[in-house]
Amino acid sequence: MIKVMIVDDEPLAVKYLADALMELEWLEAEIVKAYSGREALQKFGEGKMDILLTDIRMPGMSGMELADLARGKWPRCRVIFLTGYDDFGYAQSAIRKGGIDYVLKTEGDEAIISAIRKALDDIAREVDREAILKRSREQLHVAVPSLQRDYLLQLAQGEVDSLDARIRRFTELDIGLDAGRPVLIALGRIDEWGSFILPGDKALLYYSIQNIAEEYLKDTLKFAAFPYDRGRFVWLVQFRASEDGTPAEEQAYNQLAGNAELIQNATKSSLKVPISLILASTPSKWEDLSTRVDMLKIQLAGGAYNDLEVLMRELPDAPGEGQRASRDFFAENDMRAYTRNLDLLETYLDNGEREACRKLFAELAVKASVLPDGQDGELLKLELIANMSAFFITYINKRRLASLIGAAFSLESLVQLPVGVDLHSTVQHLAAIADSLAEYNGRKQAQRTTDLIGRIKQYVNEFLNEELSLTKISELVHLSSPYLSRMYKQTTGQGLLEYVTEVRITRSKQLLRTSDHKIQEIAALVGLDSAAYFTRLFKKETGLTPQEYRESVMK
Q: For the packed helices 423-462 and 470-477, what is the interaxial angle rounded to 10 degrees?
């Protein structure tokens, strides 16, 4: 919704221009009227102006001064000056600033409408999708390091794209690794933080450790690094070339292992921070990155190696562990990766999206169905159910929903869930809870929307003789004007200003039938200052002038 402000110290000129613009069917705009520069300045507080249509010569504050203030507040505001011949040179000096046009008062309505069309075209071009994308691409390089870290962390947490998508993202983000080749992993741990105790200091420390490692490895290895969590980081390496016949994967490990202690020493010496490292024994496929990182985390944290400045190689699988890793271990990690969708579940519940909730739980049931049997499987099922129960209890507590949804289910049911062999039934029970929450939120949203529409309609009917601009009504309901306009039409199928017009015409008909008020008086009673505009609007909506309508119903 475009907002147009008309400013002139001649009230009739303002009303005439406002009426003319409101009759343009292609112009979806809110018209704001002001009769001096000072009054216009006060109305600047009602929200952003897109087009300012102002006379140049006005007492107190000139149009030129007002335009400077408008452009200072909203640099993208288009200004159209209404000028006389004497003001032409004056206007030309302002036009050189850009975003400013002028119309000679002697040129009439068509010239003004043409200038408004031009301003609208300028606004449309400025927010054009391609222009936005171009500016985004220009700014992208500033955000690339952060985007690289985010994407690599996503891969390490099990959210893996297809090969084609991965290759494309590696190219877009300038990640210096081959998305189609296996990658060797090193997991690091910061053993003591030293003087790097503040959040900003910790980010600097991660970056400094990465720089040290890159200096040692860059000649022979492709290298990428990212923080994994608050105390650990991941390095990913690939060998650049293999000229002596040694497999590239083996050379990558040799180079990484040969420099690991040097990197530890340099970090301790330069940053006064000890770090521990565990190196994967073999390269990993990108699809297996999450599984291997989890295994390295467990091994680095366990047993006799729980010390400072550990440097170790990934341990071989324990007896019987290999078969588990090929099926059960992947199922376990797949289940954990999927429970990260709880942030999506929260959004679905808040929005009342029942179908999306059902789909999420159907997919979760499939993940749960392939978890292993035996004691390990029972513990994994317990982990899944505990996570889901904790999520729902937190969700309900944060939103103070316990007393409102008691009829649907009890909170006790969330802490007394059966696990064992009845996991499928338990997931179904959780899905039913999610459905109840989504249904409740959806119903409350619909009720709030209905109440909001009711408040708006009541206000329009009670204060029909007052200003009923989008800005005024949006302030009443604490929503932005564009959102209110869109929401009202989506909900009712009718534009808000169309509804205001409908009520005005209905009230006008009633007054014409039942009172002796003059046409000018009826126009004022339904909130229209101009009898001429009221007559044109009434005829447009009914096919009759107000006087013709009055005469027809009096026969």
A: 130
Please provide the CATH number assigned to the domain covering 463-554.
1.10.10.60
Residue of higher predicted confidence among 148 and 247: 148
CA 75 to CA 55: how far, in whole Å?
20
Give residues with Cβ within 8 angstroms of 477, minimum separation 6: 452, 455, 456, 484
Ramachandran region of residue 174, left (φ > 0), alpha (ψ -120 to 50) or beta? left
CATH superfamily of 2-127: Response regulator (3.40.50.2300)
* 142-316 and 463-554, same CATH topology: no
Q: Cβ atoms within 10 A of the Cβ of 26, count?
A: 8
Residues 339 and 385: their CA atoms lie apart, in Å, by 10
Closest CA to 274 of 226, 203, 224, 205: 205
What's the residue count for the chain?
555
Helix ranges restricted to H, 173-309: 199-217, 248-271, 289-301
Neighbours of 114 (CB within 10 A): 13
Q: How far apart, in whole angstroms, are the C-alpha atoms of residue 266 and residue 393?
A: 47
Top-tier CATH class for 142-316:
alpha beta
* Integer Cα distance of 296 and 328 in angstroms: 17
What would the mean pLDDT of 103-120 be, rounded to a whole number? 82
What pLDDT score was predicted for residue 320?
39
At residue 80, what are phi and psi to the nearest 5 degrees? -120, 115
**Which pair of tokens denotes residue 148?**
């690289």
Rounded average pLDDT over 94-98: 59
User: Residue 93 pLDDT > 70, yes or no?
Assistant: no
